[in-house]
Specification:
The chain has 191 residues and is of the alpha/beta class. The chain has helices at 8-11, 30-33, 63-67, 78-87, 99-107, 118-128, 157-170, 172-181, and strands at residues 36-44, 47-52, 71-74, 94-96, 113-117, 132-138, 145-151. It is 35% helix and 21% strand. The protein starts with 7 loop residues before the first helix and ends in a 10-residue tail after the last helix.
Length: 191
């Protein structure tokens, strides 16, 4: 087995891939599915709002409260779609090229809050920005299902989907989710 690093936005771009499949919290969307194959979904993630502890944004109790904040988000993500469709911010979200830039902007107080997938929010608050908090979570419009990404027409798509489907039907996928994502269930729901 050989690991390859692929920039997020490049992973679902049309054309040949330097990998067999990519498992990297990539949301299955109709636009992306025109350029690549996706396996059966292995996880459905909510979106999450992250803010620095002690700030006004950190005390938000609803999506309407979050809408008042200056929000940062990564370009090309379902999080950007969720900000615009679910939060409907008072001012345009600040869009950054990659997740590192979004995190840096939060650390430097250039933005009040960020919106990311819930698993990413857990990592950000635990490892990247320890003085931040998950303000809350909310479902993305149409769901935010993650799938393994493969080249368009890959002969491996059916095999990867079968492996995921077998994990689901055996109960192992739920056990893995419960073990590693139980903390996610504790994040407050924003409506």
């Amino acid at each position: 087995m050989k690991w390859a690093t692929e920039p997020f936005n490049s992973s679902y771009a049309p054309g040949p891939k330097s990998f067999d499949f990519d498992v990297n919290q990539i949301s299955i969307t109709p636009a992306r599915a025109k350029a690549v194959d996706f396996s059966s979904p292995y996880y459905t993630a909510n979106q999450a709002v992250v803010a620095l502890k002690g700030t006004d944004a950190a005390s938000a109790k609803s999506l309407a409260d979050v809408a008042k904040a200056d929000i940062g988000v990564q370009v090309g993500t379902t999080s950007l779609d969720a900000v615009n469709s679910e939060i409907k911010p008072d001012s345009q979200p600040k869009v950054f090229s990659n997740s590192n830039d979004v995190v840096t902007a939060l650390k430097q107080h250039q933005i009040d809050a960020i919106v990311v997938d819930l698993p990413t929010a857990l990592y950000i608050t635990a490892a990247q920005v320890p003085d931040s908090t998950i303000v809350g979570q909310f479902p993305a419009s149409g769901g935010n299902r993650f799938g393994a990404l493969l080249s368009k027409g890959s002969a491996l798509t059916a095999c990867v989907s079968k492996a995921i489907d077998d994990l689901r039907s055996s109960g192992q996928l739920q056990q893995i989710t419960n073990q590693w994502m139980s903390q996610a269930a504790n994040a407050p729901q924003l409506r």
